[in-house]
């Protein structure tokens, strides 16, 4: 799993690539936490994310809740078919702001 960032027009975009699983979920959580602390508008571009495990799903959910509590905005963009299937099967399409 790798991440890179771009800042434009008040939106911080975090590009996530590879796989999120038990071996790197802590790194993913730290990257998300850092981004949440630095912006009110966060976009996660998942076009190059190949897989997310249940531990990764938990991080998406807890981060979404935290962002809401802060009154900020987080969205998931460019979710590819494989990851969207995971979100659909687990019911996360109803819990996450997917655009």
Gist?
This protein is of the alpha/beta class.
Descriptive overview:
The protein has 99 residues and is an alpha/beta fold. 40% of the residues lie in helices and 34% in strands. It is built from 3 helices and 4 strands. It has helices at residues 25-38, 54-69, 81-90, and strands spanning 2-8, 11-20, 41-52, 73-77. It has a 4-stranded mixed sheet with strand order 1-2-3-4. Strand 3, helix 2 (54-69) and strand 4 form a beta-alpha-beta unit. Helix 1 (25-38) runs parallel beside helix 2 (54-69). It starts with a strand and ends in a 9-residue tail after the last helix. The mean pLDDT is 96.
Low-confidence stretches: none
Strand content: 25-35%
Q: Which strand order do you get reading across the main beta sheet?
A: 1-2-3-4
The shape is: globular
Number of helices: 3
Q: Compute the gyration radius: what is it?
A: 12 Å
Give the rounded overall mean pLDDT. 96
Q: Structural class of the secondary elements?
A: alpha/beta
Order of helices and strands: EEHEHEH
Count of DSSP E strands?
4
* Helical content (DSSP H or I, runs of 4+): 40-55%
Largest sheet: 4 strands, mixed
What is the distance, rounded to the nearest whole angstrom, between the alpha carbons of the first and last residues? 22 Å
Keywords:
3 helices; 40% helix; 4-stranded mixed sheet; globular; alpha/beta; 99 residues
Topology:
Layout: E1 2-8, E2 11-20, H1 25-38, E3 41-52, H2 54-69, E4 73-77, H3 81-90
Parallel strand pairs: 2-3, 3-4
Antiparallel strand pairs: 1-2
């Amino acid at each position: 799993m790798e991440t890179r960032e771009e800042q434009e027009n008040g939106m911080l975009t975090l590009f996530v690539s590879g796989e999120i699983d038990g071996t790197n979920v802590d790194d993913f959580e730290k990257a998300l936490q850092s981004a949440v602390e630095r912006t009110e508008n966060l976009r996660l571009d998942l076009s190059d994310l190949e897989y997310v495990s249940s531990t990764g799903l938990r991080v998406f959910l807890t981060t979404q809740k935290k962002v809401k509590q802060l009154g900020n905005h987080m969205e998931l963009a460019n979710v590819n078919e494989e990851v969207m299937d995971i979100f659909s099967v687990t019911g996360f399409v109803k819990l996450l702001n997917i655009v």
